[in-house]
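Researcher: I'm preparing a figure for a lab meeting and need a structural model of a single chain. I don't have an experimental structure, so a prediction will have to do for now. The sequence is pasted below. Please return the structure as tokens so I can convert it later.
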Amino acid sequence: MEVIFETGEDRQLSPRTGWTRKHWLELADKMIAAIQPYLTPGKGGLALPNPTRWMDEYLPEPEKMRTFYWMEGYTRTRLLLACWMMGAGRTTLTSNGRSVDIRDQFVEGLLSASDPKHPEYIGDRYGNNQWIAETSSVALAIYIARELVWDSMSPGEREQVSDWLRLATGHKIAHNNWYLFVANTQCVLKALGEKYDQDELDRYLQQVKNFYIGGGWFMDGDHERGYSIDQYNAWGFHHFLPAYVYMNVLDPTWKDWIVERLKEYVSSYKHFFGGNGAFPMWGRSWAYRPAVVAPFNWAEILGVSPLQPGESRRLVSGVMKYYVENGYFQADMTPTMGYAGENLKLIEPYSQYGSPYWGSAAFLNLLLPDSHPFWRDREEPLTVEQESYCVPEPDIGLLVTGNHETGEVQIINHRSWHQREGAKTRYAKKYTNFSYSSHFGIDLRRDDNGYNCDNMFSVSPDGKKYSQRIIPFYIGLDKNYGASYHYPLAGFPFGAPEDAKAFSIDFKTEAEEDQSVKITTQLYLKEFCQVRVHTLETKRKLAAVREGGFALNYFGKLAEAVIDEDSVAFWNGERGSFIKNLFGYAGPSGLEVLLDNTENHHTLGGKSVTPTLIGGELKPGRHVFVSLSGTWFGGKNEVTEKLGLIRKINVSQDQVKLWFSEGTDYTFKI
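Model: Understood. Here is the structure written out token by token.
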């Protein structure tokens, strides 16, 4: 849906986005007005329409199911309401010709949700503990708007709510980012002067600290359960931890540690954002997408940002503007379930229509007054708008590279993966592709024969079913270079039998962690193209291999192809992606196979096509494959220069040497 703003753009103050504080306030107005028709009678739920979701099997009782689905929409919009009330300096909103007092509505809903006798009570009655996380969201909103909400309540009402908050503490929880939720609730209780558990707060802070891996980044769990690096750093760790500092309830040692981690993270994460306002989306929970700007907001609120205020605003406004212009909202101004538009195939089964409101963290900037430099300073360009770069992030095993000419940002992954794979989660695709792009997205197709092969190298024992990288074992990063290895037939070490149903090989093989095939991948970045060298060592016969470039989405007619005996490229009228065989492959896959796709599996919507190279039968032994993969913008024939990047290649027993068209060379050791 197109969002029409009454607020005009200000290209003097905001030359890149045109957005000002008034745009954020107006957008919040529209979003709060949009939820009014869905409020439940006691204002303690949001009755958004929902498809059948994963909790149905846990909630055979219709009433429990109904109230569970009310919960997330209610809890996750509280932060939006709190930031709007404090930022707008008012509590009255005009919606559909009538005035609504949002503060009164907030308090009424809070008392309903916290009353065990009320039909809209949020608590331990659903068959799982999701309410613990959701209560934490409400707690933070209460603290932010405490002068309007908490201070207006009677002593008895405050006692009811504080008792309710405490019920969400002291439970056994998941060994991951969930420690943040309970610690946050304890911090809010402490900040409000209510009874709290300092021992649990200290213990959970230490658990979170144990997840820290360096460079400002946290792992979502510990090393024994995978290497889950993803956007939960932005909308989890660096959302709640700064909130604890904001509440001023931690001792100075903890405050200093959190602030230093936030500064490190912001300095690193700023490189992940493209000139179009998008970022390479990898990992899970894509429905939360605007919440990635929370750390930049908190760094400004705490006065510790390493960025200039104008750069912070350019980044934050750019992200939200991108989503506003690319299908974030449905016709009723509630968020879509997808990435760029509605697409339930992209969303994990734990999400529902209330889940995207986690993106309310984007509105934390409204806590900054109109006089703050964040709003008053002129927008400054993002890093990618100033220069091209390739930044090694060894702690997380990523190369982060930005193309100044096009504004595209890519991350190249040699470390991140997730511990589980379910029938609908598609974590192997969301975490372990070779690369993710701010402008190209990924193709999440998966069937009985395996995943779509965009940014993957896949092997097949039978010529039908393909397996790809599940766990990248990190080797190292250097300037424009990264390396890792993997066992494509090994599967998930922590998987249950049901996790393997949609995979290319049977569970028995996966459970045995088959290491009969090992692939070492080295990648060198040259002029924003990826030279990939795969050294495949196999103890068994393989029927086929394949490798894909970036998945290209398109609408309407078929994407146009540029193909020869060594390369294949696709162009959608604005941009394109290609892959070229430099050594080892038989050549590009046939077009009739690549273009046979009518379903919406691409993160950017529409149909999807992936330029693909294929190879034939392999005997036991060592085999080398070398490819050139990349993207381009502009006309269809502009790919010609990219395809001519490498003038000569020589592959010997122990090295691959490349000579580039502009006169330089590069050598891989194999």
